[in-house]
Known about the structure:
Blueprint: E1 4-18, E2 23-33, E3 37-41, E4 51-56, E5 60-65
Antiparallel strand pairs: 1-2, 1-5, 2-3, 3-4
Amino acid sequence: MSDKTVVTNAVAAYEVTFRDGTTKVFEAKRVDFGEYGVTFSGRRHAQGHSFVAFVPYGDLRAVEDRPEGKL
């Protein structure tokens, strides 16, 4: 699997669906799809790449962008 990175200038919301069917929304400026899972980083009003969350692929079903204002 090749690595993919999504970077935005502003914080974007991403809805993560887990294998058990539960969902959680993460707000991040950067999303890295790495070898072992997805890393969300970059908090609102923070400089640099502050850690937000890591979700291993074994626990993950889907990652979707949330439309503006739908947090």
